[in-house]
Amino acid sequence: MVTMIKNILWDIDGTLLNFKIAERKAIDYCFEKFGLGICDDEMLKDYSRINHKYWGDLEKGLCTREEVLINRFHDFFSLYGFDTSICEDFNREYQLALGETCVYCDDSLEIVKKFKEDGYKQYVITNGSKLAQDKKLVKSGFGKLMDGIYISENLGYEKPSIKFFEVLNNDGINFNDSIIIGDSLTSDIKGGNNAGILTCWYNPNHMLNNGEATANYEIDNLSDVEKIIMSI
Ligand SMILES: [Mg+2]
Q: HSE of 53 in the Cβ direction (CA atoms, 13 Å)?
């Protein structure tokens, strides 16, 4: 290796794995299971908007993880006049269903395997819930390829909090030879900015950066990660 990078810190949802497809399948499964009929695209869009808002609030420390998981469905169900007393059961089923569908972003599994063969240390850094993420990691095959798994629910801190990254640092992961690869400006890239870790923004849909965080690198395909790392 001629690069200074030794550690690759991967986000999961929307980075290694396609979250949108998993979300759609999980919602469809749970709607069927709970007899709620069909969740059309407009409804899913409403749910996604509510969900996104709650995760944003959690990143900012404005609410708890439990509130995110339950209240997102409470708000969504209220909007459509569904029985809100099923939110907790629905959420649990949804978490499990989310872990069932593993669709890789680009060639993510092959890319991670190659980095492992090349001697890099790789870690997962995710704000997802333990129930869903553990299942995804096993099912996708990423779990056994990683040198460490950092799930915010286990740590008690969320990205982009510096406290999340301090846990990695305490485990001996040196920030100076690490890079974060993630699709979220507000959690992954901002987290890197807060902790002083190089960042690579995975932006396959060419979204605009509204200035909330500054990425050192930007890619639209994970196959470019190696090129980026070799240039550092
Ligand atoms: Mg993500």
A: 11
